[in-house]
Amino acid sequence: MPDTAMPDPTRLKFGVGQSVPRNEDPILLQGRGRYTDDIDLPGQLYAVMVRSPYAHGIIRGIDTAAAKEVPGVLGVYTGADLAESGFGPMRCTLPLKNRDGSPLHNIERPPLAMDKVRFVGDPVAFVVAESRMAARDGAEAVYLDIDILPAVTEASAAAAADAPLLYDHVPGNQVLDFHYGDSEKVAEAFAAAAHVTKLSIRNNRVVVCAMEPRSAIGEYEAETGRYTLHVGSQGVFGLRAQMANDVLKVPVDKVRILTGNVGGSFGMKASCYPEYPCLLHAAKVLGWPVKWTDDRTGSFLSDQHGRDHEVEAELALDAEGRALAVRLTAFANMGGYLATVAPLMGTGNFVKNIQSNYATPLIEVNTRCLVTNTTPVSAYRGAGRPEGNYFFERLLEQAAKETGRSAIELRRINHIKPDAFPFKASTGSVYDSGDFTAVLDEALAAGDWDGFEARRAESKARGKLRGRGIGNFLECTAPPMKEQGEIRFNEDGTVTIITGTLDYGQGHWTPFAQVLHASLGVPFESIRLVQGDSDLLIAGGGTGGSKSLMASGAAIMEAAQKVIEKGRVAAAHMLEAAVADIEFERDAQGLGRFAIAGTDRSIGIMELAGRIRTANNPPPDMPESLDVRHVFEEAPMAYPNGCHVCEVEIEPETGVTEVVRYVSVNDFGVIVNPLLVEGQAHGGIVQGIGQALYENVAYSEEGQLLSGSYQDYCLPRAGDLPNFGFASHPAPCKTNPIGAKGCGEAGCAGSLPAVMNAVVDALSKYGITHMDMPATPERVWRAIHERIA
């Protein structure tokens, strides 16, 4: 690898380590963002989906005659129409195996249901019309003849012998019987343990609730046979491959994916949905672009949900309190279909993240993944990472109570020590750096742990219960992927970064520009970022798993080094010197220039780029430009970690819980932009608080979604939250050029255990030792009054 070491950023106003405001904020705050629904193409038509009102049933017929007579309706399509077009199904892409070595029972989902409906909201047809209202009227005129079948909504219930079967080829509704670990050794460890703690833990299902509902526009060019899809996504390169190879069955150069601004995703918008091939089919048949935008009710029904696991968690301790083994036995709810990465959360990511920052020598995970008559489940911020940490932290807290130990000391005893790095975890991960006990101690000090009793007394005087909780965490970022880092010097004096990650709210433009400015010395204000056009990409892992800066940042750094190599050759010609005598340096303003060593003769990098472009009769070895297209091969996973400390107040008469104090200390490695990193932490913490205290998806026995709007599904609001304390205790990552560890999902990983440990602590006076999320007022009130009745 070339020398890509960062320069000292302390004198660079826009260098690495500086809190530079996001470049896109003025654009978005002035309403100049361009989201998918903002796009209107000439002659575009409008689509509305027809969704099943039943959770489970056999499709006997779909009568479209009345819909076709609605004024303005131009087409009504069913699954049979798309099947005739040759479109393929959507399916899980993970090569997972059952414990006996056989492959998982994959499910091929057609764009529109044809034999059965398997959840309320399952699309069965769609209508295209000249206006959105006409399309809606047409959709309401479609008549569905469905024989209703019994439904099952819980994964554990779906495993019962008498549960209704969703698929003939999936015995017992079980798509995967996952196992990791040495069962015999784990059993021996539990048998020899001085103490065993067991907890039944529910990881509640949540709705993603992105600010921007899903939207898409399909185009088809008959002359070239090329499809174009405008859609909110997490990465156009990967989505293009899925659409072309699996669904449309065409070469990838026949598909273009375009993504503009995206109003949130958190995993949900990462892959293909049924609406996308439907739009492209209609565009091809009708010869005009076709647009679809979901409403919020449709989002609740059809956007992939998150979480939903039922877990039996066990921890074995020796006489000194050291963890001997941890074992998870879980049911994972897949919903009605198997989404692209659906089984990952309750299987591989449970395995990787249950270890956390503790030196547990043995881990066993047994997860049964089952289909149910509910909305499909897929990745949601953290995607199994927060869950793994949550399970272990709750076990530690409970073990401390049962053994009469300090939960803090139990953590310190089990922490991996700094002199153990590189540490090979029992999960196979190799941790490169960290100081976990120091992070814990700093968090306790920042949270004024020793002053808690005075605050509890003050709360008691006001009739409130006060509790405190710790959320130690370590998460494994996404696995290595190739990433593009392209740098273009434009005629207008700007410099464009092209990369395969995709910003759906993170604010990539500014930190990527900081990396380029620090690496190459181009003017910060001249840097532009392009991410959302698949035609420009030759690689790209998309954004997910807290890896964007590690991947794109490293790609930018390596590409910058190649620019310098080209620049030395070009500058040698311009300055009439030998290439060996040309050095790359920075002037007093931090701008890059090429100079003849030992002289005051130099040329700035931006001037050099312009002169190359306008050079007459350049010599044969003169670069045609300073532009570089580079692919960063990959970096190993990184391991962001930290400690959150939370305090809550509970009103016993109503069960209302309020987060009143919150601090976190985090090791995110090298931080490029502290302002943005703190914002990412805040967002993750709030989503964790939401799951812990407010959010819960509820279904009736018939599979009807009972929490299908914001009247019945509660999100945290600004007034529900305290100010967040934030501090960094970085140990630079040693496995990527930037030294970053990722931060996008860490807020959830620390907040789930911190909040719920605090809730249980507050309720401990009633003898309550565990409560499942969400700790809603009704649940808390009921738990209290069951104890005092």
Please describe the structure with a list of short key phrases separated by commas or semicolons.
oxidoreductase, Aldehyde Oxidoreductase, domain 4, Ald_Oxase/Xan_DH_a/b, disordered N terminus, alpha+beta, 7-stranded mixed sheet, 789 residues, 5-stranded mixed sheet
Number of helices: 20
The number of strands is 28
User: Which class best fits the helix and strand makeup?
Assistant: alpha+beta
The gyration radius over C-alpha positions equals 28 Å
Helix content: 25-40%
- Largest sheet data: 7 strands, mixed
Instruction: List the quaternary state of the chains.
Output: single chain
Adjacency order of strands in the biggest sheet: 3-5-1-12-9-10-11
The outline comes out as globular
Specify the CATH architecture of the domain at 434-477 and 637-789: 2-Layer Sandwich
CATH topology assignment of the domain at 434-477 and 637-789: Aldehyde Oxidoreductase, domain 4
The chain-level mean pLDDT equals 95
In CATH, what is the class of the domain at 434-477 and 637-789?
Alpha Beta
Strand content: 15-25%
Organism: Belnapia mucosa
Keywords: Molybdenum, Oxidoreductase
InterPro entries: Ald_Oxase/Xan_DH_a/b, Ald_Oxase/Xan_DH_a/b_sf, Ald_Oxase/xanthine_DH-like, AldOxase/xan_DH_MoCoBD1, AldOxase/xan_DH_MoCoBD2, AldOxase/xan_DH_Mopterin-bd_sf
Domain Aldehyde oxidase/xanthine dehydrogenase a/b hammerhead: 30-150
